[in-house]
Amino acid sequence: MTDWKKYERFIAELCSEDYQSQDVTVIPNAKIKGCLSQTIRQVDVLIDSRFGDDRNRRIIVDAKKYSRPLNVKDVESFHGMMMDCSSKVGILVCPNGYSEAAKRRAQNYINLKIVALSELENVDLSLWDNCISDSCNERKERGLVLWDSPIGIGAPSTPVSITTIGKCDVCGDFHIWCWDCGGKFFLGDESELKCNCDHPWFWLTAIEEDESSEGGNEVLKSVYLLLVTLTDALIADRKPLN
Ligand SMILES: [Zn+2]
Ligand SMILES: [Zn+2]
To answer: Quick one: what percent of the chain has pLDDT higher than 90?
Structure first.
């Protein structure tokens, strides 16, 4: 793994610690279709609403791998990327500082954050598992899975089960880690999964239209990860496609 790849992963982990919650999902190396460019944009870390489209929650994070300080142009091009990604707030991370003008141009909606390369020395990526999805099989370098915090799943008359949801930072596939059987599994974008346990629920992924908070003509779609119980299908996570 190159130092820069490690840097990107470290930033994703920091974002996960800072932002990931029940309502907000953190997606490493996200790929979303830009609303202006209509082309796929790569976002180092996408912080987005977990349950449905709510653009007010969207934050894009870009790690700039420069050996020099950030300048006005860097901030301006990032601002363009934010607009294309429908993000009103952004975070630009760099190891070597930024100019005064860059700071002024960033105003309130772009947060310039310095994370020194020396911090990588203490980074332990061993908590990240290798992606096990077929989608990563053909690639030169397999992705790593960024795990969320564990969640408890309960059904009437069964003890609470702990599960962790993760996403691969290369192919993007959802992963499920069931603490009862210890199994780790992946799901493609439209698939179903039941672990080795006898739980009265299973997991399902589906590409669905978002209920957009902002009208507009564009059809917004996401891959949803659903927890399907006997009575309900609950959204557990979401990966926007635009
Ligand atoms: Zn993968
Ligand atoms: Zn299990």
So the answer is: 82
> What's the average model confidence in pLDDT over 154-167?
88
CA–CA distance, 129 with 193 (Å, rounded to integer): 19
Q: Where in the chain is the domain with CATH 3.40.1350.10?
A: 3-125
Q: How many residues does the chain have?
A: 242
> Class of 3-125 per CATH?
alpha beta
Ligand nearest to the CA of 153: 2
Task: For residue 130, give the ligand nearest its CA.
Answer: 1
- Over residues 200-241, the pLDDT tens digits come to 999 999 999 987 656 567 789 999 999 999 999 999 999 999
- Which pair of tokens denotes residue 194? 């039941």
What are the b/e assignments for 188-227, b being 16+ CB within 10 Å? bbeeebebeeebebebbbeeeebeeeeeeeeebebbbbbb
Report CA(136)–ligand 2 centroid distance (Å): 23
Tens digit of pLDDT for each residue in 100-109?
Answer: 999 999 999 9
Which among 109, 97, 21 has a CA at the least distance from the CA of 64? 97
Please, which residues have CB less than 5 A from ligand 2, an ion? 178, 180-181, 195, 197
Q: Give residue 63 CA to ligand 1 midpoint distance, Å.
A: 21
- Would residue 176 be called left, alpha or beta, if left means φ above 0 and alpha means ψ between -120 and 50 degrees? beta
For residue 107, the CA-to-ligand 2 centroid distance in Å is: 48
- The closest ligand to the CA of 186 turns out to be 1
